[in-house]
Every structure is written in C-alpha cells, then in structure tokens.
Write a structure and sequence with these properties.
Layout lengths: L2 H27 L11 E5 L7 E4 L3 H9 L6 E4 L5 H8 L9 H16 L3 E7 L2 H14 L3 E8 L8 H15 L2 H31 L6 E5 L5 E3 H11 L11 E6 L25 E5 L6 H4 L3 H16 L9 E5 L1
Parallel strand pairs: 2-3, 2-4, 4-5, 5-8, 8-9
Antiparallel strand pairs: 1-3, 6-7, 9-10
Helix pairs in contact: 3-8, 4-5, 6-7
Length: about 325
Amino acid sequence: MTASQHTSSDEARAAVWTGIIGTAKHLGKRRPLSTPPRPTVVQLRAGTSDLPVYFIGVGLFEVHLAELIPGEHSIYAVEISWPSEWHDAATNNDLDACPTLEEMVAPYVAALSAHVGNKPCVLVGYSFHGSMAFEAAHQMRELGGKVEAVLLLDAPAEYPVWYKSAWQSLRQVWTRASTTARLKTTFAIGRWSFFEAGKVVKHSLLEMMMHVPGKLTTKLDTSGQPMQWHTIERLYANSLRSYRLRRLDIRGVVFRADRAEDCPSPMPDRSLGWSNLFGKGLEIVQMSGGHETMMRESPHDLRLACEMSSVLDRSSGKPAQTNGAKHATP
C-alpha cells in the first residue's frame, strides 16, 4: 500500500468514525452534541486513472468495498449532513416539509461538481443511494458535467413497498399463468405478504406500547443529532412520492443480489425497475449473496469488487475479463 492510499483510507475511516462517535455520545447523554465538520468528499482509494469513481453516501460498507476493488481508479465518496429541519419534519411525520429527491440530491451534486470539475466520472449508489446517484447524474449533466455511467448496487428504481409488490405480482400471475400456477403462486404471495405485514405491525407496537426507540444510525444531521433508521426510511420513501423517473442518456449497470426481499413471482423484474431508463444501455450483473452480504461478507464482497472493477475498466476503454453472469438490455 502506498502512502497516498494509506492517507485516503485514514480520511475515509475518520469520516465514518465521526458519525459512530457522535451516535455513541448521543446514547450516553441523549442530546445533540457538537461534532467536527466532516469533509463532503472523501477519498476511499487513490488511483492513476482519469476516470474517478464517486459513491453517493459513505459508510462502512462503501469503505470496505472500495478497498477490495482492484484496478487503477481513484474512488471517492460524497456525504452530506442532512439539515436538522429535514430530521424534524420526518420525526413529526410532516410530509409536506420533507425534501423531494431533487432537493435531497442537490447538495451532493454541488459538492461533487466542485470536486470533479470538468472531468468525466462514474457514480455509484447502494440501495436507496442508487436513486440518489441516478438523480445526481441528471443534475450533473444539466450543469454541464460528464457522467460516463451509473452503477446501481442492488438498488430498486422505486423504494420497495410490500403491498405494492404483492399487488403487481398477483396481477401478473392472474393474467398470464395457468390455473394451477395461479393458486400455487397466490398462496406463496399471501404467505409472504402476511410476514411482511407482521414486520410492520411488530415495529409499530414496539414503538407505541413499549416505547422502544428506533435503531440509531451513524447518519448525523447538521446539529450533530444521529438519525433513527425509520426516520431515514420515511425521508427516502417520501422523496420518491413525486419523483418522476426519466430516461438518462448514459450507461447503467445493475448489480443484483439474491433478493430475499422480492415478492414471489414467476417473472421477476431482473432490472429492478431500471429497464429503458438508460439511453446507452443497461447491463445486469447477477451477484451472489443478499442485499447486505454481497457488500460485506466473503466471497460475495470479493466477487462484487471484481465485477465492479471489470465494468470500470470497460468504461475507461480498458479490456477486462470477468466470470460474472450478465444480461444486457437496450
């Protein structure tokens, strides 16, 4: 490891640990605590290529994966402390005061544009950050920026709502399948829906009746207050209510996990909803491991890192070899 790579890794870990320490202090004193300002763009790994890579959002998963990706690309992450007003709006369930996806992404784009300048780049988003990367690419291009591709790490185009998935699957089954397949699949969808609804009810009961606080994250708002996961989810879901997916004239690549979250269906959408949204083609790479294990557990994380390196090499015009299962859509 070179001195520059070591410095980059330290910078990235410092950014993540600021959030962890802030959350730990909050647990001890139960009030917002001042934390040193974190840089909006941190380098996860140094490289020599002219095509830098930017993760939208940074956490332990992103830091871990960046260290595994072989190749010559410089890898960065863009992270913004969300305004405390957004936090308050989500906590109070004031949906009108919550940001749209465009508003949520704008400060990331400002930081990214200032850092990358006129260079072409690749954007990467994991989970909901995939939607943010997609919108960031739109805003970057509107500002005259150059985005070569968007890499979507198990990131559905629409934030998953269990009952919506169940209804879509039922319609699919009852219009296309045979009678036997209809009954069998309907039973499987009903059982899946029952367990999904049970998770929601259990979470609500724990909060209302037992006063169990939501799971804290290392995401800090501008006042230094750590955000609960269900509050972040509320902001995510609300931001997509009015969001209109529109075609992006670049390449897209979906790295699809073995998704236990998928509703039972004889014809799953392998593209996770991204078909026909990339003017220069969409590539689908089927990965091993689940939504989280593909990012953090061996050998799934190593395979993902190698597949991402292969895609990045092709984006920069360098031939690459890969063993991953792929499927391309126009």
